[in-house]
Amino acid sequence: MDAWLTALIHPLMVESFTLWGAPVSRLELLGFVTGGLCVALTVRRNVLNFPVGIANTVFFLLLFTSSRLWADAGLQVVYIVLGVVGWIRWTRGRSGDTALVVTRAPAREIRWCVAFVVVGTAVVYVALRHADGAAPLFDAFTTCLSLAAQWLLNGKRIQTWYFWIAADCVYIPLYVVKDLNLTAVVYVLFLGLCITGLRSWRRAMVDEARQPLERVTS
Which spans are transmembrane here (predicted)? Predict the structure, then answer.
């Protein structure tokens, strides 16, 4: 690790407490707080999930770099870009003049997302093998799942939650193996929030679909 990166990360890697015998750093704790807040805001369909999420990516970028999870570290950089794009899309909407509402992604968009996950996992896996990354297959798979999920989230597509749930189910054991126990606990909470988000967005989608009909009949 480069000297400047070591100097940046070192103060944040100071142990805050231990969880199940493994140390929990300040950096991991910051990731926990901002990550939980980001998902909670997303469940509530609050556009502030994007700036909070961007802050969260910075903390996890440093954390994953220190743990040699290169794909996850690179994913955080992409998240910053996607976060800015999503922030703009949620504010301006699909037509550019109204806020975005929850919708169901068409089958073609989902097929493209699935194809991206399959092909992307294979490509990233090969790259990680050469980079001597830790857990390259799972790292590659969760990276591509998360990118597909973020794409759907930016469009306020309800299927985003299915992709996030699938990613969380892989992330949890991955972080336990890496002794990132607090992060594993965070992702257990994320999993619960994702299930809550799916239910909440389903209700919102029904309510938003009713509103034009109610205006017509009123």
Answer: 20-41, 48-67, 73-90, 110-128, 134-153, 160-176, 182-201
Q: Tell me the two tokens of residue 95.
A: 């037509």
Query: Which backbone phi and psi does 25 adopt, to 5 degrees?
Result: -85, 165
Residues of the chain with pLDDT under 70: 1-23, 71, 94-98, 133, 211-218
The answer to whether 93 touches 100, Cβ cutoff 8 Å, is yes
Q: How many angstroms separate the CA atoms of 105 and 51, rounded?
A: 24
Neighbours of 155 (CB within 10 A): 18
